[in-house]
Design a protein that fits this description.
The complex is a heterodimer. By secondary structure, chain A is of the alpha/beta class. Chain A has eleven helices and 27 strands. Chain B is an all-alpha fold. Classes of the chains: A alpha/beta, B mainly alpha.
Chain lengths: ~475, ~80
């Protein structure tokens, strides 16, 4: 009795994303813009960018399958508090995975801005249209689930169920932001890191300038400068690329944020030099566990004092060398999979390994050997399986080679079958990888080796 | 082969392997407009490290950010003498 009353009360108290946007005010400067133009948030007050009334999506699980980030951002804003689930499909979702996604996420209808969308068995509606007037939606009390995909993982897409509450939890981090901030990110907003920035813009009263994958870096930086972007985020690889552009100085941000990859001192120093007036912070987050912390002292790594602080919003501990996190920002679970994220004590193992050096911890890579190429994750086993399909390959080991440009690149050591020459089959192996894998997963360098160390369990020794 | 020739050769070879169309490789060409993406540049830097024994980008606290092709080549030429 008490608990159901409590639930009902929470529901009626719930603030939807639109409620939070409207509460922050709707002056004309509040826009979501991309390279094609901008939409004033005020226009959504009694307006929609969909070809159906948002109420038609009430309590439905809605697949947002948009080409443009702007279409997806506006659809999510319109449907939070109305739909049961918003499934934010990333732009690189393979069409072959769509049936699995639909089944696992229990999608009931799809929204798209393509003229010819990927084949979908769901009822299809349009998003990303110019705003049309509709009768006002009053009831936005549904506790909408936001389904996000983990970045660049192999095989069956992993989908995590968040809510507006878990997603906006990190915004209360003490960062002082002017109410008229203009936010931007190199990330796609359908990734956790990008969505964080969109939500900060929407909830905090700011505007949001979206990047565009097909846009040259210089064009994006110029556009960011023209819109007066004040707060901008990206991975270290994004920033290295930005700093290699002569347009880097066309914007003058007050806040520069890095996340998604290990941050080294060189990129922090280079950003300090490029943007002397900016506050530079690097955040640690994962789609599963949310944002754990951000570091604002301009140094790589993070202070050891963050570990074990019981008053921290995200509690952290080190166990078996990896970082464990407990916070209210952790995803509620996986869609279509009952595996729980956190252990009984509420801590999630991030799998990110750290070492203590003096008074700071530094990230040293992933436990399972996942390779991070410019923010995109690569499972070595997936690449090894493809190489091993070649009839001339005996065995191979795929591993990371550190790169000052993308953090890491993928390389392979290959043992060829007796009597064969590596040089004669290498072009075929490369062609085979190209047919099966995206560019960042294909070993950039391959070298022949006479043997690989196999451990007692019959597995290749990855640390040899 | 000079350092410059080695670098140009590797740029052409990586671009071909990655299916990228290169702009004419003039000195003033901005690297980001050359047709090479970050992954291509990362591969070129790794290959040049193996071939020349030079990696001008891996400083502990400082890293250069070359804008043009000639900036990029100059980083290697400066370390090879």
């Amino acid at each position: 009795m008490t608990s159901s009353l409590c639930t009902r009360q929470n529901l009626s108290d719930r603030k939807s994303l639109w409620d939070l946007v409207a509460a922050a005010g709707l002056p004309a400067r509040r826009i979501i813009a991309d390279a094609d133009g901008s939409v004033e948030l005020a226009k959504l007050d009694g307006g929609t960018t969909l070809d159906i009334h948002p109420d038609a999506c009430r309590d439905a699980s809605v697949l947002i399958l948009a080409k443009q980030q702007k279409s997806a951002a506006l659809a999510a804003l319109e449907l939070d508090g109305i739909a049961r689930r918003i499934i934010l499909c990333p732009p690189d979702l393979a069409p072959s995975h769509l049936p699995l996604v639909i089944a696992d996420a229990q999608a009931q209808l799809a929204l798209t801005d393509h003229a010819s969308p990927q084949s979908s068995t769901l009822p299809l509606h349009k998003c990303g249209l110019s705003v049309s007037r509709i009768r006002q939606t009053h009831n936005r009390n549904t506790r909408t689930e936001w389904v996000l995909f983990t970045s660049g993982t192999t095989g069956r897409p992993k989908m995590l169920v968040h809510t507006l509450e878990t997603l906006t939890g990190p915004i209360d981090d003490g960062l002082r932001v002017a109410h008229d901030a203009v936010w931007s990110t190199f990330y796609d907003i359908r990734r956790y890191g990008g969505l964080q920035i969109l939500l900060r813009a929407l909830v905090g009263g700011g505007a949001m300038i979206l990047s565009e994958p097909s846009e040259a870096v210089a064009a994006f930086l110029t556009r960011a400068g023209e819109y007066g972007v004040t707060h901008i985020s990206g991975t270290p690889s994004h920033w290295r690329r930005a700093l290699m552009s002569d347009a880097a100085n066309r914007m003058n941000p007050a806040y520069v944020r890095l996340s998604g990859e290990v941050v080294d001192q060189a990129i922090l120093n280079a950003l300090r030099q490029a943007y002397p007036k900016a506050d530079i912070a690097h955040a640690y987050a994962s789609t599963e566990a949310g944002v754990a912390f951000d570091v604002r002292d301009g140094r790589a790594g993070f202070p050891a004092s963050l570990i074990g602080d019981p008053h921290a919003k995200a509690q952290m501990r080190i166990q078996d060398g990896s970082l464990w996190i407990k916070s209210t920002r952790i995803a509620e679970g996986y869609a279509g999979n009952s595996t729980t994220l956190a252990g009984e004590d509420g801590f999630v193992d991030t799998g990110d390994m750290v070492v203590l050096d003096g008074d700071r911890y530094y990230f040293v890579g992933r436990r399972q050997g996942i390779i991070n190429v410019g923010g995109q994750k690569v499972h070595p086993e997936e690449v090894e399986a493809i190489i091993n399909q070649h009839p001339g390959v005996q065995m191979c080991l795929v591993k990371a080679r550190p790169s000052p440009i993308t953090g890491a690149i993928v390389v392979a050591d290959i043992v060829v079958k007796p009597g064969l020459h590596f040089e004669s089959i290498q072009p075929e192996i490369i062609d085979h990888c190209r047919a099966a894998l995206p560019a960042h997963k294909i070993p950039a360098l391959m070298r022949p080796v006479s043997s690989l160390d196999v451990g007692v369990a019959g597995k290749i020794n990855r640390n040899a | 082969m000079t350092v410059r020739e080695t670098i140009i050769g590797e740029i052409q070879s990586v671009a071909a392997n990655q299916g990228k169309t290169l702009a004419p490789l003039t000195d003033g060409l901005p690297l980001l407009e050359s047709g090479l993406d970050s992954l291509c540049i990362a591969i070129i830097v790794a290959v040049l490290d193996d071939k020349l024994g030079i990696d001008p980008f891996s400083g502990a606290t400082e890293a250069p950010f070359p804008v043009t092709l000639s900036d990029f080549i100059a980083l290697y030429e400066a370390k090879s003498v």
